[in-house]
Specification:
Elements lengths: L1 E3 L4 H33 L6 H39 L2 E3 L22
Antiparallel strand pairs: 1-2
Helix pairs in contact: 1-2
């Protein structure tokens, strides 16, 4: 049995930040997709809405990444605080042998018979 007593705040915040940048890219792509669908549905409408959608799509990875970094740091700090009070998360781990990645050996030729 092992117990996670604390987590490094900055490393947790970096992981959250990178994950949320990826989420921000996906959200931005959906904004662009829906904006293009709306633009195709009403081609005579004002173009200002499409510009706004492109701005939101461009900034969403940065905003999501910054929010993820801050939320990751807060989550790590809260976990460390709560784990110090109640003991952390207990886990039971099992050792698994590493797979053998040796290249296959060529077989010896068999005599013709």
């Amino acid at each position: 049995m092992v117990r996670v007593r604390s987590v490094d705040v900055i490393s947790c915040a970096k992981i959250y930040g990178v994950l949320h940048v990826a989420i921000g890219v996906l959200v931005g792509l959906f904004f662009v997709l829906f904006g293009l669908i709306g633009f195709a549905a009403a081609p005579g409408a004002q173009k200002l809405g499409m510009v706004g959608i492109l701005v939101v799509a461009a900034f969403s990875p940065f905003v999501y990444g910054a929010m993820g970094f801050v939320l990751g740091a807060i989550a790590a700090l809260l976990y460390n605080w709560i784990a110090s009070a109640i003991g952390g998360i207990q886990m039971e781990l099992e050792a698994v042998p590493a797979p053998d990645f040796a290249p296959p050996q060529p077989s010896a030729p068999t005599p013709a018979g």
